[in-house]
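Acetylornithine deacetylase or succinyl-diaminopimelate desuccinylase: structure, please.
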Amino acid sequence: MTTIHAKTHATVPALTPEQRDRILAAVDAQFDRQLKFTQELVRHPSLRGDEASAQDLLYGAMSGRGLEMDRWELDPEQLATHPGAGKVEISYRGVDNVVGTYRPRQELGRSLILNGHIDVVPEGPEAQWQRSPWEAEVVDGWLYGRGSGDMKAGLVANLFAFDALRAARLEPLGRIHFESVVEEECTGNGSLSALMRGYTADAVLIPEPEEDMLVRANVGTIWFRVRVAGHPTHPREMSSGFNAIDAAYFVVERLRRLEERWNAEKGKHRHFEDLEHPINLNVGKIKGGDWNSSVPAWCELDLRIAFYPGITADEAWSEITAELAAIEHDGNGHPVSAEATATGFYAEGYVLEEGSDAEAILGESHADAFGGAPLQSFTTPGYLDGRVFVQYANIPALVYGPISKDIHGFDERVDIESVRRITKSIALFVARWCGVEDTAARH
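Here you go.
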């Protein structure tokens, strides 16, 4: 049996059962090393703007595997020319992407991007964790730590899946780009920058923590800031003033109406009909006022809201700003001024259409790694970098990864045996998608 790749007009042998078993055994043989390297990566607190040391570690790991290396600082001015870019409020000085490229001696198979993000969200009050978010402890089959699930275990799985092929003496016949990107948790600009730099392929696989399943669809996301104006006075004359913080609560309630209206429309949007609450508005940060004994003159809210695939970010933004513009008075008759500014994500959602070769091959590989269990898919009300490749390069993006708990929360952790199975699945997928040359046959 052979597989024909139309883009190269080349024919490569299909993976044999014996080669499959060699790959599975190779993942097991090196899994202790994989786990230790994942722990080492978790110990680098790669918060936004502070990803350099973790990227140094991955750069060394990729270059040590003989990959062709590329590292560059994100350029906010260049990114701003792309319609999919998020709004930038920080300096990108020292904020780098890392890409390692494997090139076969002769490129006969399909190409692939193995993508993952290195940035993690803040850990919050460390005293509320059961154990340190940065010590990467293993307890009862779980690896703990900020970023363990989201998504350093997946980033490392990409590399060790490749190692397993080589240990099994199977050399991929397609070009592979290993991407470690920044900014996934706030703008999506890392993956977008890699695409703008010219990194494309016939498929993309992103091992986000997705409960051993494939993401079928996900929402768009906008980050924005609302500034509410008040009128300061002394508290003894509060009735003559206007408290901007009090008014901010009223503004949020009006935005909740928009959230409720969008959720009521879920039946019109394919794959979202059965989700209980697909559209979520989150008040992420709030600050305001200048003095305990002064009625606050201002309040700022930093928010995140989702919207459905098929709706543009501009359309969603128009509805948000119209809702705010319609506010004239609060519940006490005070005039309200609420101005919104986009601050990060300005990203549209996507649907991974069924029937692609990439999904079929992932399904076969998943079944082999999971004891015959079929690959399941689901819809997520969260953001994913897969949208970059689907929307702007027409590349099928397979977002598929291990079981995790409490990502973005206290005691984030990833299921170690799930990581092992996902690594096997990725390795088999790479072998089948790219094709392999069996170098063991030479000896």
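Notes: Residues 17-218+350-438 form a domain with the Aminopeptidase fold (CATH 3.40.630.10).
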